[in-house]
Amino acid sequence: MIFGATGDLAKRKLFPSLYQLYRKGEISKNFAVIGVARRDWSHDTFKSHVKDSILTSIGKDENIDEFVSHFYYQSHDVSDSNSYVELRNLSNDLDEKYDLQGNRIFYLAMAPEFFGTITEKLKTEGLTETGGYTRLVIEKPFGHDLPSAEKLNEQIRQSFSEDQIYRIDHYLGKNMVQNIEAIRFANALFEPLWNNRYISNIQITSSETLGVEERGRYYEKSGALRDMVQNHMLQMVSLLAMEPPIKLTTDEVRSEKVKVFRAMREMTSSNVDEFFIRGQYDNGEVQGTKVAGYREEPNVDPNSNTETYVAGKVLIDNFRWAGVPFYIRTGKRMTAKATKIVVEFKEIPMNLYYHPEKPQHPNLLVIHIQPDEGVTLHLNAKKSGDKLKTTPVNLSYSNKGINGINTPEAYEKLLFDCMRGDATNFTHWDEVKLSWSFVDTISTYWESTTSKEFPNYPAGSMGPKAADELLDQDGFKWWPVDGFDVDNC
Ligand code: BG6
């Protein structure tokens, strides 16, 4: 059951992803999807909507009609019990028709203020009482801060237990984010070096060229910190920093990630300025097109104090990482759309190739998350004939990714995991709780102090100057994200 089935997410991501799974044979013929939303649509209107979405994102294919024949529609009022009774009857009929054995997934792809009501009614009206499994998939944002997330969690826990809840962070469905663990734990080469003896710093950048588009109303209350840092960015930090789990099972992986969140150096109102900086885009030019500043966007306050850019230094106070900064940065309207992780290694103890005019390049391991997917290892070699100078060389592996925003591929993986009952790539409540408590101090401080410099970076740039200073003071610099020509760095 997809609540919010007439919305954008369902159209752009969920239907195409389900179709891909169906086409690959990952979904059997015994399935039905009920689209649930307010609009007064018929089953047929919904089916043609689903078909359109697939044709738009994937193109023509032979079995689309067969696939969409499994789709049904229920016009629904979330607060009306009768709607749930109708939904239950339809579900029971489909259960029988397709021999579903009572297995149900409830996907909430709609505004979070309805999550509590929906989950409560699903239980009281008997939709969760089946002979099979019942699972709840929840889209972000999971709360607005720790208190609201706690309240939401309490509400949904009345009807679903933690192991039935699948909180989506679509970054965890990205191919190369999932590969962080494989790179670390399947290679004898890296794990021995993966600590503060050999790594000087780690940089995670997720830059976007888009502005807030039509989402001004939501974004004004969210900002980049809640929109990107609390979830996606900190999730990547936890995967990079966690200890090797004893097994790759859901519980083991999550418990190692939770330990990272617990070891993150707590922010206080007096140290936020030292560790985090914020930015807001001004008008400018993105890839040759003139664009408006954030304060001129629809539904945005002309004096807005909302940040569209965040850069920060996260310290992890444990044995492995003491003294190694994890720098993160993310923003809208930047130079390029790219997500990359750069692991910078320390200098070798004694440089036999020391050259005053040509300092040796540090070894870097770059994990390209998007748009290109792959890994690059930056090494130093010697040109023939040159006895004293080294020159950087790259070992690269590139896996051509789908160049798009929130590629359906991530949703495809996550939907498949949920159907199989594998919650490893979803966020546990403990992770959500700890990450909110980390960012809450920063957002409370920022909300209490108006930034006098806003707007402080032109659209189409890599963010405010202060982000460079953040690394400068530690003797580092951001490695570029678009293209990676080390000779020019
Ligand atoms: C979403 C944010 O979670 O992630 C958006 O709400 C952002 O504001 C998006 O644009 C970025 O995702 P991706 O997959 O394009 O990097």
TrEMBL record:
E.C. number: 1.1.1.49
InterPro entries tied to this protein: G6P_DH (IPR001282), G6P_DH_C (IPR022675), G6P_DH_NAD-bd (IPR022674), NAD(P)-bd_dom_sf (IPR036291)
Catalytic residues (positions): H232 (proton acceptor)
Gene Ontology CC terms: cytosol
Domain Glucose-6-phosphate dehydrogenase NAD-binding: 1-179
MF terms (GO), sorted A to Z: glucose-6-phosphate dehydrogenase activity; NADP binding
Domain Glucose-6-phosphate dehydrogenase C-terminal: 182-479
NCBIfam families with a match to the protein in the record: zwf
Name of the molecule in the record: Glucose-6-phosphate 1-dehydrogenase
Species of the source: Bacillus coahuilensis p1.1.43
Gene that encodes it: zwf
